[in-house]
Amino acid sequence: MINDLVKEINELNMGVDCGSDKVSILLYADDIALISDDSEKLQKLLNYMKSWCTKWRMKVNVKKTNVVHFRKKRKILCKHKLLYGNEIIDCVPNFRYLGFFFDEHLDFMFGTDLLIDSSNRALGSVISKFKMLKDAGFNTFTKMVDNCVNPISEYFSGIWGYVHNKKINKVHNRACRYYLGLPPKTPIYGFQGDIGWLLPKYRNYCNMVRLYNRLIKKENECLVRKIFLWDKEQPGKSWYKEFLCILEDIDYPVPDNNKYIDINNFIDKCRSHQYYEWKTLLISKPKLRTYMKFKTQFGCEPYIYLNISKSHRSVMSQFRMGVLPLYIETGRYDRTPVEKRICQFCSLNRIEDEFHFLIECCAYNYLRTNLYQKIDSIDTYFKDLSVEDRFVHMMKHHQILIVNYLLDAWTARKNLIYE
Length: 419
Ligand SMILES: [Zn+2]
Description:
single chain, elongated
């Protein structure tokens, strides 16, 4: 029955050109979308629809029905009032179709903003559930984010994955900050590098590649396939051109006609591109100068997998990213000159920075002796290293020992303040 409607509506020949075809109606479950490039033609489609529904005793909920005038930004909105029977259909700037909000200029900003907001709410509930789990670690957290948060922010991104929404990393960064127990002002390249997850931009690129792979496999008679082939030939903006741009962005070769893209290969390429981009940006951040000395590879750090308490993990990640409130950091708040941010807990008259805290400060000598003994028993060459090299060596290769030292020293420092 409903197929008759499609046939009859198509026969009216009022839709938009798509190659040698015209598209005038889209059906999905009980959703119907009528499409035309002219308001009078669209009114004729609506009239036909109305008489068809009357004939079959079906009702359209006009309150849930809207008109969107899709157009370029410079073009003014059509004033023509469209009717369903005697009722006026509201013209709106955006409409939710199959769960995604399409806006009148098709720049996808409105729709992607909403997806980001709702995935952010989903992250909130993932975090509250995660807090209640005992002994759940990084793998569990990653799985929860991958299954309950990312599918929301990536919804439909096969279509819009090239769009650069400014808020794109908001949820990703919040998830990283939560797991690592970091304050809001932490430099993002630090925790993005330590967590090592693929950034949303690249996940969206992958979804575009997945869509491309589906489209090239479809039968020629299939409507989406026809639209794909038509889009590909468009001289102006098109999905296919954006698709070529994302390939170019990560230096991925354009596939030969109708050739499949190996998705795992593509993900690898995204990872290495993310690594180079991260490395370039890292150099431009003076706050991460110390971090750069020991963090040379992008990717998940061993301490993240350790089965340690959240406070251990938090002290460690804050220390690595230069935001542990040592004097070097807190002095910034009251604008104390850097050379005056001297350690108050020993008489060495040195700036209290990460290096001083781990390597020099006499206040934690007893803890450090213990730490060095343990490392010496593993790496016999450790004692021959310069102090600078010791710092880097420990941060790279002895994270579990460092985590314990840091928490003990940090507790000792707090006690010294209150003495
Ligand atoms: Zn000191």
